[in-house]
Amino acid sequence: MTEPLRIAIVGAGVIGAVHARLVAALDGAGELAAVVDVNESRGRALAAQYGVPFHASAAAAYATERIDVAAVCLPSAFHADAVVEALDAGVDVIVEKPIDVTLAAADRVQAAERASGRTVSVISQRRFQPVASFLRRSIDEGALGRVTSGVVESAFFRPQEYYESGDWRGTAAIDGGGALMNQGIHALDLLLWMLGTPVSVSARTGRLAHDGIEVEDVAGAVIAFESGAIGLLLASTAAFPGLLVRLAVHGSTGTAVMENDGLSFFASATAPAPAADTLVEHDVPEGWSDVDMAHRRQYLDVIDAIRTGRRPAITTDDGRRALQVVLAVYESARTGRPVDLAE
Fold it and tell me: Is 80 exceeded by the pLDDT of residue 343?
């Protein structure tokens, strides 16, 4: 019988606690082995909740525990350092989005990944939702014809208290950005997955509903793709009370619309609509959301990739590309000019 991979949570904050719950539910594919945090009381509390060792540094955890995978759940600007440290210790990595906050940091991650020969995957769990997977299959199978455009909305709401809950939240240096970098990047990743390689970005951002932050709470962009398709993006944390994530993909022979976890519209000149129950999550544990199920599915994909030697479904290339578009949105908003993404 294959032993479960031993996973350390690096960063015991809100998202670290989410990862810990997911790891505890991997049913033998993986198990929680340690919790790491510089905040001792917070780290010890999460470790005690799951009955695993606590360490004040990742280096100590890697030196004293058998760790197979590090789940990096730190503030965004600390991601690259933590990923490189884990790879240097011979540990595979799952890192929360974004991959980091600069392309130089993302490049450092990729260089360390190549040098180590180990696996790194960036969290983007919405790709693993049944409806998102169906949309991608519909494109691949030609049900939508030539994809001509896509629209994605991530119109969320975060109260002022959200940004005041941590001294790094809303800062340009550590948070790296606002509504797009930290919330809308999931929806952006879906748009990129559906429409392909982005080539230019024109954007505007605003800080309209929150005080004392350095980052945007609204971002809008037009993204041109290599195929000729045009994408529209809205990301917000200033849309009370908060709406569903909505993704529409339009093509020459069909259109499909995903709203949060469901398929709200599908029409194709060449393919039938799917049966309603085929795209619904079944056997969802009490207290779990469909997104939690997708998050767990990404963990299982990464574990299988580590065991089989294949690349994970979501790679550092995907993480870097999403970050590149986010930074292009910020540059275009700052300069008032389109940004060419050609490297």
Answer: no
DSSP label of 28:
T
Instruction: Kindly tell me if the per-residue pLDDT of 192 is higher than 70.
Output: yes
Looking at every residue in the chain, the average pLDDT score rounds to: 96
Distance CA 32, CA 267 (A): 44
Given a cut of 90, whether residue 1 has pLDDT beyond it is no
Distances in Å between the alpha carbon of 94 and those of 9, 16, 72, 301?
A: 10, 12, 6, 11
Rounded Cα–Cα distance for residues 31 and 6 (Å): 5
Q: Report how far apart the first and last C-alpha atoms of the chain are (Å, whole number).
A: 47
pTM over 0.90: yes
Q: Which tokens sit at 215?
A: 């980052």
Provide the pLDDT confidence category of residue 276 given band limits of 50, 70 and 90.
confident
H helices within the chain, ranges in order?
A: 14-23, 40-50, 58-64, 79-88, 103-116, 130-140, 160-164, 185-195, 290-308, 316-335
Query: Measured between alpha carbons, how far is 257 from 48 in angstroms, rounded to an integer?
Result: 43
